[in-house]
């Protein structure tokens, strides 16, 4: 298997699915749709939709019911980036190598575009019901459970809860302690990766104990991903990352690197990835690509 080519193919497939669910730029709300689509089409790894579909396939899923959830997942992630970049929060002007939404459309439009994407994500996920056979009650239950996961992992007990604690503690002179930083990472970053992977397993009909194992390994990968992000904010370049570097220091933000140092941070990324891979080996299905994808996260430079 050529991992790079396989990743490019899966990313392209996810991109096409996402595009097919974007709002039309027409009518009185045309400008809002344009701002939403500007952010959605600005590139990115499409990591969460790729994770979702790969786990779905690993557990034997073959239908199109996964597709609206893939698009919804990326809409929610993009909503969080639009709001993170706002002047009231990180005040970043570049994301994925080009101007952020508020820098192009203005702050009020960016706030509304982020809000609209979050709501549109749930509208999109509900469209999964349109793809079901009316007589297949088991599949209807799976979609309902997947919607429940989507709601919980992105709300106050997940991504938004983590973001709120992050914002509350921004620019404080006193450093966060490790317990609170772990809470932020587990919710602001890990929750969406857990969401993507557990939805994939759920829609494919995985057993409950398998779904729990997927959730645990996804949590480890999510934290490793965020720690690597912290490392790159210190060691990366604008050309590599497509966004400003040193923003954590600029905003006086406590990160894993500021608490533990770069050396320990790098070691923990490797250890968390190893633990996740060990859990993956306990699960059924074809895992080669997913294994390589998880490994690539701990060495990425962007």
From TrEMBL:
Q: Which CDD domains match?
A: Trans_IPPS_HT
- Kindly list the cofactors needed: Mg(2+)
- Top-rank lineage group of the source organism: Bacteria
Look up the signal peptide feature and give its range.
none
The protein's UniProt keywords, in alphabetical order, are: Isoprene biosynthesis, Magnesium, Metal-binding, Transferase
Q: Which Pfam families match?
A: polyprenyl_synt
Q: Which InterPro entries match?
A: Isoprenoid_synthase_dom_sf, Polyprenyl_synt, Polyprenyl_synt_CS, Prenyl_diphosphate_synthase
Stated family: Belongs to the FPP/GGPP synthase family.
Specify the protein name. Answer: Polyprenyl synthetase family protein
């Amino acid at each position: 298997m050529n991992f790079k080519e396989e990743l490019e193919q899966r990313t392209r497939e996810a991109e096409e699915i996402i595009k097919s669910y974007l709002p039309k730029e027409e009518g009185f709300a045309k400008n809002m749709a344009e701002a939403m689509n500007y952010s959605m089409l600005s590139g990115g790894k499409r990591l969460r939709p790729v994770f979702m579909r790969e786990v779905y396939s690993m557990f034997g899923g073959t239908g199109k019911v996964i597709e609206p959830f893939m698009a919804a997942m990326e809409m929610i992630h993009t909503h969080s980036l639009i709001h993170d970049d706002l002047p009231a929060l990180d005040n970043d002007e570049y994301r994925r190598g080009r101007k952020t939404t508020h820098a192009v459309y203005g702050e009020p439009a960016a706030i509304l575009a982020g809000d609209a994407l979050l709501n549109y994500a749930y509208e999109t996920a509900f469209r999964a019901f349109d793809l079901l056979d009316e007589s297949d009650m088991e599949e209807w239950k799976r979609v309902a459970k997947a919607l429940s996961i989507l709601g919980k992992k992105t709300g106050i007990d997940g991504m938004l809860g983590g973001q709120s604690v992050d914002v509350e503690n921004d620019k404080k002179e006193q450093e966060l302690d490790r317990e609170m930083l772990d809470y932020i990472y587990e919710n602001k970053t890990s929750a969406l990766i857990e969401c993507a992977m557990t939805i994939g397993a759920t829609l494919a009909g995985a057993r409950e104990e398998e779904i729990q194992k997927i959730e645990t390994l996804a949590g480890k990968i999510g934290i490793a991903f965020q720690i690597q992000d912290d490392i790159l904010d210190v060691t990366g370049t604008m050309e590599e990352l497509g966004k400003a570097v040193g923003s954590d220091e600029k905003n006086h933000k406590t990160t894993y690197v500021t608490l533990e140092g770069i050396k320990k941070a790098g070691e923990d990324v490797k250890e968390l990835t190893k633990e996740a891979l060990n859990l993956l080996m306990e699960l059924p299905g074809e895992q080669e690509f997913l294994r390589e994808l998880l490994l690539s996260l701990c060495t990425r430079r962007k």
